[in-house]
Amino acid sequence: MFIQRNKELKLLETSYTEPNSTMDFVFGPRNSGKTSLLNEFSKDKDRIYISNYEMIPSLFFTKIANIINNFFKNDNVDFTFNSFLEVLEFLSKQKFENKLIVIIDDFQNIQKVDKKALSDLITFWKKTLKNKNMQLVLSSSLLFNDEYEKDIKKLKSNVIQLNYLDFTAIKSMFPKLNKLDQLYVYSLLGTTPTNLKYYNQNKNFTDNIFNLFLAPNSYLFDYGIRVLKSEITDIGTYASILHSISQGNTKIGDIAASLNVKSTYLTRYIQKLIDMMVIKKRVPLREDKKKSKFGRYEIQDNALKFWFSYIYPNLSKLQFSKIEEVSKLIEGEFISKTVFLNYIKCIKEYIYANQKDTFSYEPSFIGSWWDNNGSNIDLIAYNNKSITFVQILWEDKDMAKISYGKLKASSEKFPTTLDKKYIIVTKNTFFNI
User: Domain residue spans in the chain?
Assistant: First the structure.
């Protein structure tokens, strides 16, 4: 099922219709739908699709050259390619009239084999490939460093950042489930179609957890290890960081304290996880992401968060068939620790998608806010006249009356001279959207 990517499809289609050659970059975490997007976009067009596997360089680049050659209905090449630049030179010699789409999926795998691949590509594009009737599309589950970001901006290329799909994807995929069960599935698996296709809506939620995560040889039993090993060989520190975050340690100081190390020791590991788009850094509204001291880190993929919360710390028990013990732990904690946080996330998604209806004006800025003294406001939105403070509750309307006073008190700590408004969201809102 292909859903929720119309904006990204339009960007790629617009690039395709350009009279000149174009280059597009698609970044997204593993299993976020990059390949599905590229297939949907290019399915009725002339295309060369290159998907990469890890091999020694001579096999790796010769395989890519053969994919190119086979598209033009030529025999396999009879010589060896040893670098990505040699492949690009070979591609530039091919003749074609109609616009040709060349898709290189998982470009980060090419960079593992040839560290100069990206710089060679940018240089050769400027020199030669941009003069061909071509749309070159690269996807990657690893962000490029700042140096290459500047080069990409100079090329005036499309840079498409894929995030995981919204909660509404769950509603589309499992329309027969009631709203609460949809929230449970979202909290367990997120919106990754690759994982969701294994969820059996004809079985109860507990059975699905067992079949997906706990049973021997279950599809997601080693999920966290697979995700990390796709980019990292020595995964120990990375796994420990993710487990700490999954336990609620979202500040770097708290993560460091839980691991009994200095914060400075964790910096490069945290940055690598950000580059892999496994975690993201959130900062309060009005704060600079690079300079803020109020940063909070969160795991983006709900299935990965669940794995590091309950599977990673209990691998020994599960390997020795102590499944019931782990099941009881999940049953006791899952709703209070996980489902409520994802309920808040769902409400925020809805508000972001319906800003004018929610606030009765079009906000210029919107985001969450907190300080280091315990004040926290789920959302703040404002324009040049009005500012609205939003608190999201699971409780009913009676509790909302109490929370209204707390929200007003917290809002006093956010400096503003704008006209203040307040919104309390309860669970009734969730069940009606």
Answer: 6-161, 168-341, 354-432
Residue with tokens 């990206």: 118
Buried b (16+ CB within 10 A) or exposed e, 322-355: eeeebeeebeeebeebbbbebbbbbbbebbeeee
Q: Tell me the sheet residues that pair with 422.
A: 389
Q: Span 168-341: which CATH code?
A: 1.10.10.10
Distance between CA atoms of 170 and 191, rounded to whole angstroms?
Answer: 7
Helix, strand, or coil (residue 21): coil
d(Cα 341, Cα 246) in Å, to the nearest integer? 12
Q: How many residues does the chain have?
A: 433
Tell me the residue ranges of DSSP E strands in 109-175: 134-140, 158-161
Domain 6-161 classified CATH 3.40.50.300? yes
Q: What is the pTM of this model?
A: 0.91
Other residues' Cβ atoms within 10 Å of the Cβ of residue 397: 10
Ordered DSSP codes for 227-294: HHHTT-S--HHHHHHHHHHHTT--SHHHHHHHHTS-HHHHHHHHHHHHHTTSEEEE--TT--TTT-S-
- The phi, psi pair for 188, rounded to 5°, reads -85, -45
pLDDT (tens, 9 = 90+) of the chain, 433 residues, equals: 677 899 999 999 999 999 989 999 999 998 898 999 999 999 999 999 998 767 788 889 999 999 999 999 888 888 899 999 999 999 999 999 899 999 999 999 999 889 999 999 999 999 999 999 999 999 999 998 776 777 777 777 889 999 999 999 998 899 999 999 999 999 999 998 889 999 999 999 999 999 999 988 899 999 999 999 989 988 999 999 999 999 999 999 999 999 999 999 999 999 999 999 999 999 999 999 888 989 999 999 999 999 999 999 999 999 888 899 999 999 888 888 889 899 999 999 999 999 999 999 999 999 999 998 889 999 999 999 999 999 999 876 667 777 888 899 999 999 999 999 999 998 887 887 7
DSSP for 383-415 reads: -SSEEEEEEE-SS-HHHHHHHHHHHHHHHTTS-
Which residues have CB under 8 Å from 13's CB, separation 6+? 41
Q: What angle do CA 354, 346, 31 make, to 5 degrees?
A: 110
